[in-house]
Amino acid sequence: MDFIEERLERLEYYQALLLQMVDTNRFPFYQLVMEKGLSKSEIEEIYQLLNGLEAIHEEQKTQGLVIFTDLLTQFAGQLNSKLDVNETIQALYRQNLYPILMSDLVELIKSSY
Description:
Blueprint: H1 2-21, H2 28-35, H3 40-62, H4 69-78, H5 85-94, H6 99-112
Helix pairs in contact: 2-5, 3-4, 5-6
């Protein structure tokens, strides 16, 4: 058993080193979820949430809506508790994931301050 624990500890250390090597400007969201220790299923839940919000966002834009406070509220309410809402939105935006939705959420957050 000690051998397996040693290997696991080494892998975790190597992962931490790899995270430091990753270009945070290219993959900030991926780095964030690794730093926070999210599981594959937790990440898939985030993508499901984002896919749903993106569909609602597109529908609202088609209807001419320009304020998306309800989407931000829904995102904040359903986001995994290990993640900070603003930090996650910024990471998704910088990584160019869900770009139109994230752009509008970033602008909404900026206008709130």
